Amino acid sequence: MALSSLESLLVQKRINPEEIIKSKVFVERLNDEIEVSFKRLSYTKYKYFKRAAIERRRNVESFDVDKYRISIILDCLVDPDFQKKAFLDSFGAPNGEVGINKIFLPGEIVTLGEIILKESGFSEDPFRDSLQNDEEATGDEE
């Protein structure tokens, strides 16, 4: 008996959560590509980072896309590793968030986050999807 598409996906195409994915990212200011290595985002971490990026002030919730993006990059990026103290010390960063912001420009941070989320099964514009979903959940609109 032939397997359905879903059965085939679940049985034959299982994802190894520890798999390291390499990707090239074009850095315009270098006019060159750099290679980064990362793990896919787990569902548990996705939900955690999403909840952690919701800021509550005066009974109003807003989604901090930048906090969400940085959390994902810090958790998933393997090379360069912004969680290694020696690496951070080499350019005077007290933590990974500061390190990412010191090394990468804002657009490069967006690109890294999008690459990681796309490899984790999200759509072409994963941060916009997250924003819309959170606005619907909180009743906020753009």
Task: Compose a concise summary of this entry.
Helix content is 49%, strand content 18%. It has 142 residues and is α+β, with helices and mostly antiparallel strands. Strand 1 (21-27) and strand 2 (32-38) form a beta hairpin.
Account of the protein in words:
With 142 residues, the protein is an alpha+beta fold. It is built from seven helices and five strands; from the N terminus they run H-E-E-H-E-E-H-E-H-H-H-H. The strands form two sheets. The protein has a three-stranded antiparallel β-sheet. Helix 3 packs across helix 6. The longest helix has 14 residues, at 106-119. The model is unreliable at 133-142 (pLDDT under 50).
End-to-end C-alpha gap:
50 Å
Give the helix level as a range of percent. 40-55%
Uncertain segments are 133-142
Helix segment tally: 7
Strand arrangement in the largest pleated sheet: 1-2-5
Shape: globular
Rg from alpha-carbon coordinates: 17 Å
Counting helices, strands and paired strands, the structural category is: alpha+beta
Query: Quick check: average pLDDT?
Result: 80
Order of helices and strands: HEEHEEHEHHHH
Largest sheet: 3 strands, antiparallel
- Report the portion of residues in β strands: 15-25%
Count of DSSP strands: 5
Write the layout of secondary structure elements.
Blueprint (H helix, E strand, L loop, with lengths): L4 H8 L8 E7 L4 E7 L4 H10 L1 E4 L2 E4 L1 H12 E3 L5 H5 L6 H8 L2 H14 L6 H13 L4
Antiparallel strand pairs: 1-2, 2-5, 3-4
Helix pairs in contact: 2-3, 3-6
